């Protein structure tokens, strides 16, 4: 698999943060711009971003080019964004690297390593950090329907990956998969 798109899940309202995380700034850039750039710099030929809460503002604030995917059901959980995003990946792509908008320290090298694993035959690949699974994740197109069917509420691909554990390639990656759910967590990352 060589032809891989990128997908940022960025539709939530960020209730614990106090605003949609796609609009939050870290190190001079919005979290949405950071996620899009990470996927692009890691080798994704096209990056899609699923938006929901304050979607127009997120698109207006963005400086990195991406294909917007509107999720009108964003209030029903992360799974609806994953489903919308997978359905929107153009047919010309063999797979997709998925990440969340609130992971500002994920590195492009993690994306490169997942794409390399796919080129080596992996159809499901998950980044690991010191042995712990996190984002980004890579899914071959052959898994899109199963992942979409198995995801529910705020549970994305976890159940599908567990059911297909023998196919999941764990890929050790550099970087920090810490997420930013609150202003205090963002402040801690800035230190």
Describe this structure in words.
This protein is an alpha/beta fold. The protein contains seven helices and nine strands. It has helices spanning 31-41, 55-61, 78-88, 108-119, 144-150, 158-163, 183-190; strands spanning 4-10, 25-26, 29-30, 47-51, 67-70, 95-100, 124-129, 132-140, 168-172. The strands form two sheets. Strands 5-4-1-6-8-7-9 form a seven-stranded mixed β-sheet, sandwiched between helices. A two-stranded antiparallel sheet has the order 2-3. The longest helix is centred in the middle third of the chain and has 12 residues, at 108-119. The mean pLDDT is 94.
Strand order of the largest sheet: 5-4-1-6-8-7-9
Number of helical regions:
7
Mean pLDDT: 94
Q: Strand pairing plus helix content: what structural class?
A: alpha/beta
**CATH level 4 superfamily:** Spore Coat Polysaccharide Biosynthesis Protein SpsA, Chain A
The global form is globular
Uncertain segments are none
According to DSSP, the number of beta strands is 9
Q: Tell me the domain tally.
A: 1
CATH topology: Spore Coat Polysaccharide Biosynthesis Protein SpsA, Chain A
SSE pattern, N- to C-terminal: EEEHEHEHEHEEHHEH
Distance between the termini: 39 Å
Query: What's the CATH class label?
Result: Alpha Beta
> Sheet bearing the most strands, described?
7 strands, mixed
* Fraction of residues in helix: 25-40%
The gyration radius over C-alpha positions equals 15 Å
Just name the CATH architecture.
Alpha-Beta Complex
